[in-house]
Amino acid sequence: MHRFFTAPENITDEKAVLCGTDVAHIRTVLRLKGGDRVQVLDGLGNCYTVILSRVGRDKIESRIESKEDVEDCESPLTVSLGQGMVKGTGFDGIVRRAVELGVGHVRPVSAKRCIAKLSKEDSAKKIGRWQRIAREASKQCGRARVPEVGPRAFSVRDFCFAHRESDLRLIFWEEEQSVCIGDLPLKTRVKSAAVLIGPEGGFAAEEIESAMEYGFQSVSLGPRLLRTGTAPLAVLSILQHLWGDL
Ligand code: SAH
CATH assignment of 3-71, given 2.60.40.2310, 2.60.120.460, 2.40.240.20, 3.40.630.30? Predict the structure, then answer.
């Protein structure tokens, strides 16, 4: 059955409303009509079977028939990825692949050496775009939850403060010579991890020091220099293997 995400506020006790790009897809590509059934998810793990009641041009109304137990594709490890801003559309791909790898949250980090900056005027637009990409990636890989992207750009210090209680706090630094992920104590109880990946220009020394003040461990990803788009995928894969569900 076709699945669509809608914001939680579009779902009441007996009705669900679909809007945005899904409307045209349902009307013109899938050609669904009143009486047809689809599944609607609120991105928080709830899934409903609904019967389309009014297929309009800008929104589609439906009646909730039943609430479904969704197969839980969520990892037992919640990873908050603090990702340095990258130029062009590079961040799009990082968001998409991180969602497939079970990331919990994607926090854009405006590091000192970022080439791309997230200005106030285009912040909402870009974050809205990345959140749509996360929603599409969740739908494609079968997640009932949509990881939050944002809600704003963080400095390294902001991110570290916000994640100072995480079980695992790691900042990946290509100049780290002695500690790699394999050297981390394999604590059995790791439910949350906050990881920092720098932009194309890497982290400034003072950013590494800031992170250490909040108990972040600087970690090497081995002898080769990974691109900023490769590093988060390697980190997510390894952490999900050690403490998650890969
Ligand atoms: N500073 C380098 C590249 C930064 S790569 C340069 O100027 O070319 C972007 C980010 O990926 C880095 O900030 C770091 O977080 C991560 N990274 C890449 N290779 C790494 C490695 N071998 N060990 C640890 N982190 C690495």
Answer: 2.40.240.20
User: From the CB of 48, is ligand 1 less than 6 Å away?
Assistant: no
Can you give the pLDDT at residue 71? 78
For residue 123, is pLDDT > 90? no
Contact 235 CB / ligand 1 (< 6 Å): no
Residue 216, ligand 1, Cβ within 6 A: no
Name the residue among 185, 184, 161, 181 with its Cα closest to residue 231.
181
Q: What is the spatial distance between Cα 74 and Cα 54, in angstroms, rounded to a whole number? A: 33
pLDDT score at 244: 96
Question: Does position 220 have pLDDT exceeding 90, yes or no?
Answer: yes
Q: Which fold has domain 78-243?
A: Alpha/beta knot (3.40.1280)
pLDDT value for 122: 84
Q: Is the shortest distance between the CB of 201 and ligand 1 below 6 Å?
A: yes
Which of 156, 171, 172 has most ligand 1 atoms within 8 Å of its beta carbon, as the pocket-test mutant?
A: 172
pTM: 0.91
User: What is the residue-averaged pLDDT of the chain?
Assistant: 94
Alpha-carbon 227 to chain mean position: 19
- Edge-first strand listing for the sheet containing 3-5: 3-5, 37-41, 47-55, 59-68, 15-19
Going by the DSSP 8-state scheme, the letter that residue 36 receives in this structure is -
Six-digit token pair at 199?
Answer: 């932009």
Is residue 134 within 8 A of residue 106, CB to CB? The reply is yes
For ligand 1, atom 10, the nearest C-alpha belongs to 198
